[in-house]
């Protein structure tokens, strides 16, 4: 039997995966394809690492659409203490312009003492997050520079949970209530105890990632099936089940700032690369045992998910390959931009 054209375009990407297992999935107009390699299937859960932040951004946009928060709200409006210095806002956290360092002060030292080679974030909880925030000196004035920050991503989820009337630790429950539940994502959550693929680092199996204090920055697990569903919703926000989520799916794609010297733009967490045929939005993630990529082109109705259960390697060849395949999917046989028929 002849393989479907979309599936045949994805197959080389499986070869680029270095892990024991991989799952790649794509949508292009009405076409859909999911390919798996090794002991995984389309519903196998992978750690997504920083791809988690795209879910946190969607949660921010959803709460904003309901009027529960505003992008310009000060972060400390929802904290038990006031932060010194210039105002730090929710939008700063969602665009990596907060001035916060990549990791909270004290996390690395704690991890080296307790679990650097096993689970470096496991001993860093919600109280530690707030304690680190009190000790942090911003690297630059909020809004003046882009500086990627896991600290900021984790803090954003903590603050959103508080804004919705819970505690910082209620981020997983809020995400399920507002985003993953309504979208029907049965494989997607922050639960390290549910079955998932076994991650690998330098060829060795890894324990499931634990991130109690920075869940919103990297703790989400998901499957190729669920992530393809998310991309479908981003490509067609009108299919979402309620008005707030429909608004949020569109809002996370709106460019918020230009990244100097790159030609790229930042949306809410998503990176946007302008192209002649329309914007390409993408994000990736990695943990000590997994690598993940997701990207989509709204103009052509094209999206791609790539997951493997091994840690990223230098130069990230799997992610680079996924990005390249996504660009190729946006072109027809003639090399021109492929446009979905309506």
TrEMBL record:
InterPro entries (UniProt xref): AmpC-like, Beta-lactam-related, Beta-lactam/transpept-like
E.C. code: 3.-.-.-
Keywords of this entry: Hydrolase
One Pfam match: Beta-lactamase
Domain Beta-lactamase-related, chain residue ranges per copy: 9-313
Gene3D superfamilies with a match to the protein in the record: DD-peptidase/beta-lactamase superfamily
Hydrolase as UniProt keyword: yes
Molecular-function GO terms, alphabetical: hydrolase activity
PANTHER family: D-ALANYL-D-ALANINE CARBOXYPEPTIDASE, D-ALANYL-D-ALANINE-CARBOXYPEPTIDASE/ENDOPEPTIDASE AMPH
Protein name in the entry: Serine hydrolase domain-containing protein
Native organism: Streptomyces atroolivaceus
Record lineage: Bacteria, Bacillati, Actinomycetota, Actinomycetes, Kitasatosporales
